[in-house]
Amino acid sequence: MSFADLGLMPELLAALDAVGYTTPTPIQRDAIPVVLAGRDLLAAAQTGTGKTAGFTLPMLQLLSSRHAAHPSTRHRPRALILTPTRELAAQVEENVSAYGKNLALNSMVMFGGVGMQPQVTKLRGKIDILVATPGRLLDHVGQGTLDLGGIELFVLDEADRMLDMGFIRDIRRVLAILPKQRQNLLFSATFADEIRALASSLLKDPATVEVTPRNTTVERIEQTIYPVDREAKRQLLEKLIRDGEWSQVLVFTRTKHGANRLAEQLDKHGIPAMAIHGNKSQSAREKALREFKANRLRVLVATDIAARGIDIDALPHVVNYELPQVPEDYVHRIGRTGRAGAGGEAVSLVCVDELKLLADIERTIKQKLNRVVVPGFEPDPNAKPEPLRKAPPPRGPRRDKPARAADQVRRDQPSQRRR
């Protein structure tokens, strides 16, 4: 099957050809006809499956075909894509611009950590597609600089991560503002019960597409566990990078402080590295991503939230310097490699403190992962586990507390000192 077989217009096919895409992925094959037909959609797809094109391509076609029919929406966005993080918002808008380059449609990305005024100025012009994070979106609505009354199509991307980050109240506030007559698309890595509950309140008679079974990992990814003492992790990581001649490595830590410390240590020992997390300024985050994508930076050290939206073709190596405390996050992390049909390698450095986390991960993915002990880095058999340093934000029931939701709104505002 080709993209032409899905009923996409020639302008979109030309844009896809320019970026080298010829064959739709399963999520694109199943989702695009549904969206083009005007139906609501509930879609489950892991990262790296091409889901962004699955909703942006038909969105562009629908808006283009209706372009002259709604002059009243000329100064109001007609489609809204809501994402959990700045990086993902920027990535999605880049895709919208690339796929829609042959169409008379304008797009804009909106997130916190940068000044409001340039966004206000841009909103005064013609914006067809708005990609935004919840906090900054609600800031603009509250200040009267954004009118969402013209939204025809609404996309909630990475809904599972939205809930994990405590955005459920903000999502409900956004839904209350949108026009009642609209097309809704919800994309999530899993169909957890809370996702289905959200979908039931958002979607009307939706088509359901599920291309990846829940919590499974990408089969093309080679996964390896390296048992090691906690104090020797950095030295082992340096050895793996140097011996393997790894040129582009995404490394995950649990905490922002840990990301900073590891990046500084690697850089000091001759391995160019930078950290990316929520406490970094927007300009620093963009610089780190730009350098990493251009292969001028060998190692990018990231926390889970900051890494959402990092979309790099053929990223060869992902390293779990510390295992995540939520098993599903392991799937999200290693999904940064092995994307779009390419292979990849996911490495986890596991000390005695993390053995229970490893068991939870293996139980979740229903797979026993291969262990490799590197000579000179054999873990001490008598080592005693220590309590893990937990990483914010808290998960579970606490995320729906009002104080938690308010804190998430503040995270998108540039006036906060911690930014």
From TrEMBL:
Record-linked Gene3D superfamilies: P-loop containing nucleotide triphosphate hydrolases (3.40.50.300)
Q motif (motif): residue ranges? 1-29
Basic and acidic residues biased stretches: 397-419
- Identify the residues that the record assigns to the Helicase ATP-binding domain, covering every copy: 32-209
Q: Which residues form the DEAD-box RNA helicase Q domain?
A: 1-29
Q: Which reaction does it catalyse?
A: ATP + H2O = ADP + phosphate + H(+)
Q: What is this protein called?
A: DEAD-box ATP-dependent RNA helicase RhpA
Please spell out the taxonomic lineage of the organism that makes this protein.
Answer: Bacteria, Pseudomonadati, Pseudomonadota, Gammaproteobacteria, Moraxellales
